[in-house]
Write a structure and sequence with these properties.
It contains 9 helices and 10 strands. The mean pLDDT is 87. The strands form 3 sheets. The chain has a 6-stranded antiparallel sheet with strand order 4-5-6-9-8-7. It has a two-stranded antiparallel sheet with strand order 1-2. The protein is 31% helix and 31% strand. The longest helix is centred in the first third of the chain and has 14 residues, at 22-35. Helix 1 packs across helix 2 (22-35) and helix 1 crosses helix 3. By secondary structure, it is an alpha+beta fold. The N and C termini lie far apart (65 Å). Bound molecules: 2-amino-2-deoxy-6-O-phosphono-alpha-D-glucopyranose.
Length: 262
């Protein structure tokens, strides 16, 4: 850490035009250190105190520079453990034509998957849930809300609602919702997804470890079992910097018909 602090302060002395405020100079020298790989994704930054002493500036100035870098997503702060260079996310390419689960998608890419529970319980159905799941106002829903994490990077927040008849006990879901549904013969065979762009609010941004206001892809999936009954209504929020959705398109309309295609 002493070496790292020294490197930071060396570049700090030379950084930026002379007239720039100290916190701007410090911010630039940290940005340079990240850009040139002197501090790498996941590395801890020296403590606020070490930087202040080493660079001979006040802790308030250090805090201001660090706060700017946290807001721009270059650094992240973990409560109680310090400030780190934000992990670089590998973009994930997701097919839009396969009905797969998060666990299967990530496993196929050799990524390790885990989830943090945000909520798991039985609730009175909201008007949306009643309409989509075809429930009466007296019926209850099972809600399963998780932060989905692949290779230690939080990628999505998923809030799923299912009728209690489909999922009587939300705590029966361990790592995969689809695996739990498979066990009871309720795995969906078809789904309709609606994707829209949005900007993350404070709370969701904190969970996904990106600055508030970052781009996200919001996806609503309504899935059906083979009888045509709706089995799942899930609202997912995917990090915009981590996901590419890919759809295969085939020629349709008059040109395809002329070629004898359906
Ligand atoms: C995807 C879908 C969700 C679905 C989930 C199931 O991420 N967007 O609608 O609920 O997969 O994943 P798992 O079986 O890993 O819980």
């Amino acid at each position: 850490m002493a070496d790292l602090a020294e490197t930071l302060f060396q570049s700090f002395k030379g950084a930026g035009p002379n007239g720039a405020p100290l916190y701007v100079k410090l911010r630039r020298s940290i940005e340079d250190a990240v850009e040139h790989g002197i501090i790498r994704p996941g590395d801890a930054l020296p403590s606020e105190r070490d930087i202040a002493v080493g660079a001979d500036i006040s802790r308030v100035t250090v805090r201001k520079a660090v706060q700017h870098l946290v807001r721009s997503g270059i650094l992240i702060q973990r409560h109680g453990s310090g400030t780190f260079v934000a992990p670089r996310v590998e973009r994930v390419e997701q097919s839009l034509s396969l009905l797969t689960s998060f666990t299967e998608d990530m496993a196929r890419r050799g990524m390790t998957v885990r989830s943090e529970w945000l909520d798991r319980g039985i609730y009175p159905a909201s008007p949306d849930e009643m309409m989509i799941l075809g429930l009466s106002s007296k019926e209850l829903v099972s809600r399963v809300s998780r932060l989905r994490i692949a290779n230690d990077t939080p990628l999505a927040i998923e809030r799923a609602s299912l009728s209690v008849a489909t999922l009587p006990d939300p705590s029966a879901v361990n790592s995969s919702l689809y695996a739990a549904l498979d066990e009871t013969g309720n795995r969906p065979v078809r789904a309709v997804q609606r994707i829209s762009a949005a900007n993350l609010g404070e709370a969701d941004a904190r969970l996904l470890q990106v600055p508030a206001g970052s781009a996200s892809l919001n996806i609503e999936r309504i899935s059906y079992v083979s009888t045509g009954k709706v089995v799942e209504f899930t609202r997912s929020i995917y990090r915009g910097d981590a996901y590419d959705f890919v759809a295969e398109l085939r020629m349709g309309g008059p040109a395809a018909r002329a070629e004898g295609k359906p």
